[in-house]
Every structure is written in structure tokens, then in C-alpha cells.
Amino acid sequence: MHVLLRQLNRVRRDARLPRGRPASLAVRHVDAGSCNGCEHELQAAASPFYDLQRFGIGIVASPRHADILLVTGPVTTRMREALLAAYAAMPEPRLVAALGDCAMGCNVLGDPAALAEPLEELLPVAVRIPGCPPTPDAIAEGLLGALDGGLPRVA
Amino acid sequence: MTLAVAKPTAADVPLPLWRKAVAAALDGGGRFAGAYATDDGDELRWRVLVAHGALVRSLACRSAARRVPSVVDLAPAAGWDEREAHDLHGLGFDGHEPLRPLVDHPADPSAWTVPMTGEGVHDVAVGPIHAGVIESGHFRFHLVGERILALDARLFHKHRGLERAAQGGDADHGLAHVGRACAACHVASSVAYAQAVELAQGRRPSDDLRVARTLLLELERLYNHLNDVSAVCAGVGFAPGAMAFAALKERAQRLNARLTGHRFLFGSVAVGGSTLALSGGAARTAGEAVRSIGDDAAKAWRSLMFARSVQARLDGVGVLTRDDAVRLGAVGPAARASGVREDVRTTSPRLAYGDLAAAVPEAPAGDVRARLQVRALELESTCAVLGELLASGEIAPGGVVTAARDAPNFGTGLVESPRGATLCAVELDGDRVARVHLRTGSYANWPAVAHAAAGNLLPDFPLINKSFELCYACADR
Ligand code: SF4
């Protein structure tokens, strides 16, 4: 009886599996001056407990291969150029995501002289994942939202 | 109980006697622990801190001309500190030649790299953006073929000016900045800061607070060491080990969240207290969770020992000799792997470590294997410390008691972070933080990484780098 119920449950669960997400999402991460907390959680999102890859979301080595630029940290003056270069290297259509409160420009700590403009002023941010740092769950949710929302078409 | 009381009121050392004074302080086993400049408009004050166990001595000199004698030949570990003070405060150092930029990033590579010429010598530039999910920093390798002749690391891409931003506010404002210097060392940096402020205010932690902070520090070490073993496995492309230890790290972080409400223990350290409060039952449950993580880590470690593809990559790679470790001022697991038997935890009167001994592997060869072994040994001792403290029952947040009639307005805190000795110095002006300086284990160890990389093959660098597993964030601040 118990075994039957368990199987029934499993069948029900499987039936609820999302079918046919529209695409995969290649993510390129740029640390623009984080405290490393957001990186740890982004890595965790790709680790055994969360396994983002199974939704078609993968972290890629080059901006040339990326659909979405995932930025962490407030933008420091010393990372500004590298960040812009990474964005320029991406093929279109492309998205920019702000990962964490710092990248979103909330409660930013530091000396204004060492920080560049906020990310929002530098690049067109389309996805925002709040938290300090956002939990791996929140990161998964935010990225899946971007996947479901689709990538903007080039005009 | 003896406290690490520095003598802030001691008169400034006249410049002609500066080198002699520093040499005398270093004599008899003193360890260069940090240095920082304070700008009061007309004059610059330069302060050097030397640690003898838990005791931190402070020496200062002043210069209106913004030039002081370098001590880099007496304490090579001061190299980065002097370069930083030059870039951030315009302080010159007589005898430090060439004084290459460190925090400043001039466009011309010859301004900051070691010149390397000869047949077949070429450069490979990597970063600041790396291929994986990694912090930003730039490495310039000088190679012949694939062999590394020398490595110039150009960090500070993540410099946020946190020390400067922390100045002028109250102690909590300072804590927010110091705590966000680095997530992976959040507790260590925060405790070092809190200790420094408390000492400056003439207060010391109660017994409960010592226990609470020790618990938090070891919870931080637990998830970090699990992470670092995973990282070394990833560095040799051994996915089963990387995944097993990443999963264990996740369990440790979920325990953090259960105990403090935050996976990185953010907000758990306060000046004059902590927010950690556990009932006897909660402490026991946490103790069981730690034991089960420790048991599973031991099992995962044993299977790693039999994974030949991993074992074949560890020996003789990225060697840091004992002499070099001492000369360069390496600290923490990296130094212990080279046979330096030092661990700030063994002399921490403001924490509750009992008779903990520094972990040194049987064959401290200073290579990747030895650095990995130190992590395994410390995972055991960390679980033991946590188990013991949690078994003693209820955990209270604790507080501080007044220890001195007059507040000295200057204090230092010294804590063993997962990466080694982290020092924080604080100068108070009434309720305001006039100056704060944070020198983390990562900051101390970066020069050793560059040194250990020389002579190895370029493809081994990720592995060597992972075996140190330093933070960029807490070095850059
Ligand atoms: S949002 Fe929080 S965790 Fe992320 S980089 Fe900023 S301070 Fe660190």
C-alpha cells in the first residue's frame, strides 16, 4: 500500500514537471567588486543541491558564448572598463542581470572615489536578483524567470 | 587573563631610529603583522604592528615630508603594506627600490611588472575576468614554453575604499564596512574588528562572548575548509571530489542559516556582543549536525585518498619552503603546510580555544598535498571544537566587561581566519572611528602564491592557486 502510494506520488510529481522551456541560457559572470558572497552562492546554484544545469542554464567561459551577463558587486573604478569590454564582446540579443544588492545599487558600502557609476547607469539591466547574497534558490528563480521571459529580439 | 594591549600612547619613534626600533621589535620571534598610514593633513603617521603570540606591539613614526625609511629588508612581509601606503597615501619609502604600484593600476605594464628578458621569454596575461565564477584579479605570467619564470599578480580590482568609508562613523558603521570586506571571512574580520574596538574602549569580552565568538569562527572555518577541499578537486578536474565536498559545504551553510539566520553568518558578530543564542536543546541538535558533517567529510576524504587521478597531481606542485614562508610572512594553513607551527587560535585569550594545537602535517612539504592535508586535519579539530562547545549546553550571546579605567582609544584584534592570521587595528576619537585597518590572511599570503607558482607549469597554476584559496575581496577591500 505504502509503496503504491509513493509511486502514485511520484507519477503525479513527474506529471507536473515543466515541459518544453523555450530555450537554454548561457551565463557569463563578471565580478565587478563583490565581497565574494554572491560568487559563492552562484557557484552553489550550480552545485549538487540545486543543479541549475538541469534547467538548461549553464555558466560559460567567454562572453562570446553568453546570452546573459550576470554582474555582482558595486562597480569599482578598476573593474569598469573590463565590465564594459565583456558586455561589448557578447553577441546580440543579450541581457544584463544584477546579482545581489550591491549590483542593484542598494546599501552600497565603500568610498565613492573608488566606485564607478552604478550598474544601472552603465548597462541596460533587465533582470534583478536581490539579496545579500541572494540564496541559491533565489538565483535559480531569478534566472529561470529570465529564461521564461525570453530574450529580447533584435530590432 | 592577559590581554593583547598595544601601547598606543608610546611616543613616536624619531625617523633616524625607525629601522632600529622595528628591528628590535622583530627580534626574538616577532612577526610583522601589518602597517598602515594615517593622514592628518600636514603630517603622515606610519604605524607598524608586530605580533608576539597574542601580544601586538605598535610602533609609529611621523613625517611631514611624507617619506620614511623602508623596513622591507628587515621584514619582507612589509612589501605590500609599503606599496599600498605609497599608492593610497602618497607615502614614500627610502630604500624600497623599485617601489612598484600595487593598488594603483598604471596602463604601462613595465611600471608594475618585474622585467623578464631572454630567449623564448613571453608573457601570458590572464584576467581580471576569469573563465569560471571567480573573483576578479589580473595575473601576468612570464614564461618560457609552459614553465613559469615569475608571476606578477595585479590585484585590487575590487578595491572599494572600505577603510576610508568606515572612518568618521560610529563603531557599528565601521563594522558594516569591515564585515562586508569579504563574505568568506566575514566572522573573522568582524571579530578582529570588534576585539580592536573593545580594546580601544578599555573593555574585554565576557566568558559567554568568548564562547559565542569561537563557535561562530569555527562554523566559518568549517564551510570554508569544505569549500577549499572541493576547490582543489575542481582544480585537478576531479568532479566526484569537488561535488562531494561542495555538498558538504552546502550542509554546513544550511546549518549556519539555522543557527544564525544567515548562510554566511552575516550579522552574527557585534561590537560588545554577538547575536548567537541557542537553547541547550538547539545546541545539542547543532552538535549532532556538526558530527554528521564531520563523519561524512572524513569518509569523503578517505575516498579522495584512493582517487589516483587526484593523488598523482599533488606532490611537489607549488612548493613554498619553510624559509620562504617565514621570509614572506605567510600565515594560516599555507604556512603550516610548510612546517610553520603557528596558529593564532593557540594564543587567543579573547576566545575560548582551550588547548588547541596548531595542525602541521607529518611531511610539511609546502606543496599542494600538504596544504590539502592541513585542511583535512583542521576539519577534524574544528568539528571537535564545535562539538565540545555545543555539548556544554546553552549558548548565550555574551557581552563585555570593563577592563581598564581609561580607554586607550587604540586597539588591535587578532584572529585566525580560515586563511590565516587576520589583524584589525582601530583608532577611536570619542565615539567615532578615526582609522580602521584590516590586514587579512589573504593579504598576507598573496605574495607567497606568486612565489610558489614560479618554476611550475602554467596549467598547474589553477591548482596551486586553489590550494591557497585566497580571497581577492578581503585583500582588495
Ligand atoms: S550583495 Fe552582499 S553578498 Fe553580494 S557582493 Fe554585495 S555585500 Fe557581498
- End-to-end separation of chain B in angstroms reads 33 Å
Treating each run of at least 4 consecutive H or I residues as one helix, how many helices of chain A?
Answer: 6
Of all chain pairs, the largest interface belongs to: A-B, 39 and 40 residues
- Which regions of chain A are unreliable across 5 or more consecutive residues at pLDDT < 50? none
Unreliable stretches covering 5 or more consecutive residues of chain B: 1-9
The first-to-last residue Cα distance of chain A is: 58 Å
Helicity level of chain A, as a percent range? 25-40%
- Radius of gyration of chain B, taken over Cα atoms and rounded to an integer in Å: 22 Å
The overall pLDDT of chain A, averaged over residues, is: 88
Widest sheet, order of strands of chain B: 1-2-3
Tell me, what's the shape of chain B? globular
Binned strand content of chain A: 15-25%
| Heteromolecules bound | iron/sulfur cluster
- Name the average pLDDT of chain B: 92
Question: What characteristic shape of chain A results from the CA principal axes?
Answer: elongated
SS-derived structural category of chain B: alpha+beta
The SSE order of chain B reads: HEEEEHEEEEHHHEHHEEHHHHHEEEEHHH
Number of helices of chain B: 15
What's the total count of β strands of chain A? 5
Task: Characterize the main sheet of chain B.
Answer: 3 strands, antiparallel
